[in-house]
């Protein structure tokens, strides 16, 4: 498990690069705290949004249509 300290953009960019399978520079992302969960961050990247959870897991934060 990767541990990200606070909202260090270089650390988050490195972890995020592994998730999207391409190099992501720190200046390409916008990081804000997730008020719903301590230690969790929102990551804005291009037109998509992601969540970095306290356990180091990254997940898409987009709506999905359900039947």
Characterize the structure shown.
This protein has one helix and four strands; from the N terminus they run αββββ. It has one helix at 9-20; strands spanning 29-33, 41-45, 48-52, 58-60. It is globular. The N and C termini lie far apart (35 Å).
Low-confidence stretches: none
- Describe the biggest sheet? 4 strands, antiparallel
Q: How many helix segments?
A: 1
What percentage of residues falls in helices of 4 or more residues?
Answer: 10-25%
Q: Which term fits the overall shape?
A: globular
Brief description of this entry?
This protein has 67 residues and is an alpha+beta fold. It has one helix spanning 9-20; strands spanning 29-33, 41-45, 48-52, 58-60.
List keywords for this structure.
4-stranded antiparallel β-sheet; 1 helix; 4 strands; 67 residues; alpha+beta; globular
Layout of helices and strands:
Blueprint: H1 9-20, E1 29-33, E2 41-45, E3 48-52, E4 58-60
Antiparallel strand pairs: 1-2, 2-3, 3-4
